[in-house]
Amino acid sequence: MTAAGDVLNQVVPVLVRLARRPGGLLLTAAALGVGVLALLGAVYTLAGDGGSWFPLVLAGVLAVPVLVLAVRRERLQARTQGLALRPTVVGTRDVVVAGAAPNPVQEELEAINGALVESSIRTARFLPRVEAAQRAAVRAAGGTVNAPYLKDDLRVTLVALVGTVAAVPVSAVASVVTAVLLLVG
User: Fold this and answer.
1) The pTM is what?
2) Is residue 97 part of a domain?
3) Which of 127, 145, 163, 179 is 20 to 30 A removed from 59 (C-alpha atoms)?
4) What is the mean pLDDT of residues 147-159?
């Protein structure tokens, strides 16, 4: 593994641990808002007139990014759980045979150059810079074996995060409107 991979494996677990509580609060708020909207939507649909299904459908649409982010968050937590915050260096009794030993500086430069090349290739149509940055990070880390937290597509996770953040106010406003319609109607 290169030094860039070591840095990623030290920084990412810290960031995941720092974001654990805010991420949980965001998911709880979004799930609560969507759940209340679904409940009010079900009651409004049963009381029903034309268009009474809209709050229930909106709750279903808002639930998708919340569920995707919850699953992605759990995977990330599980994949970074095994990474140590401070790696320990253990001495070995390996015998080194003289010959063509790999140069660690050359390996590091090749990994960084490979990452730069990967970051410059933007073939994806949807969030190409995010996809290129993820490929570059995978290349710098030496593959997903060394950085298992990079297996999932970050573009999906980012879109799910934006959808979850949007679900909180949208579900709150829709719940208030649905409650008013239930009281008036």
Assistant:
1) 0.73
2) no
3) 127
4) 83
